[in-house]
Amino acid sequence: MTASLNVQKLIQETSIPLADNLNIISFLDKWGPEQIVQVYDPDVKMLGFLIIDNTFLGPSIGGLRVSNTTTPYDAFQLARTMTWKSALYNYGYGGGMAVIHSNPFGVEKSKLIRSFAKKISQYVPEKFIASPDMNIDEEDLLLFAETIGDMKSVTGKPLKKGGIPSKLGMVGFGIGVSLESTIKLLEEYNHVKNSIGNKVVIQGFGSVGSGLAKYLYSKGFQIVGICDYWGAIHDPKGIEIPSIEKNSSAREEKSSLKNLKRLSVIKRDEICSIDSDIFIPCACERTVNEVNYAQIKGKVIIEGANKAISPLAEIQLIKNGKIIVPDLISNIGGLISSYSEYKQIGVNETFSIIQSSVESVTKEIMKSSLESGLTLRRIATEIAKERILTSMEAN
Known about the structure:
The chain has 395 residues and is α/β, with parallel strands linked by helices. It contains eleven helices and twelve strands. Helix 5 runs parallel beside helix 10 and helix 9 runs antiparallel to helix 10.
């Protein structure tokens, strides 16, 4: 691990909890993490950390984000999710996560990104490949790659640089396909007394939430509620998604959903209580938690963001009869687009690969769950563990 004597002071100034969040020993198990790297640059006040969780199936791949609320333990959990996800879909990657710990609004990101890239360059891309995450766009990733000096150090670059950027909506597309496959199978198995319904609430309106909203709208779903960082909008008759696309991924309040006065504007946290059939959290981790889970009306909850549902909330939701499709199954478009970018597969073919892969995995695990009574997350995780264990034993 690399660090500076000033790191602890900066951590305290930026309010990262200490104790278990920085107790590296508490992270360790038989699967990883292989390396935890903490870096600090006093010149630009850049504090960051990189988690390389498991590379037995290939180099770790994971999000690069700018956030002042993501702790090292959060990063580890996100890296582990990518480890399981990569193994489940079997695309030859491991799991990782990188965080620049800073307030994403009003900062000069370019200096932080250059500094962070230089500090972790020895691990990139042989052990870690960065991909889009919170508050990081295609130009940020290009800057990271140029600083490293290797275009293979990231995926999600601009199209002109041979990339497949997140703005194309592949993550949201994959979530939509997973939702459609889930509904079809539940109805085939007569697992629900009546049809699921088509009223959808989407929590989060960044690249994932907006891509999902666009896809579901095109398929005839009624999007009755959407929120972003500043507020939420609600229309029981359905929101016209094309009319609000320009408000996605807002960087400031004046361009956010909160200012769409022609619609019913509500507080952000009221999004959970909107009447719906399907609830899809697409913002960040633990936005469905012990405080708000009981408010959710939807019969089906699709985890659009990684780790969007806290473990305790998930247990209670399942006890309440909710059907939960975890991130391991649904949030896979980013991984597949990363694979396609590396293999130089075109955009249209990548959409086709996402559709076929997500349909196949969702159906396989959903059938197993309906027949065994085990949760989708448990089945998906066990499949992933078995694949990694086989590779670990072979080496």
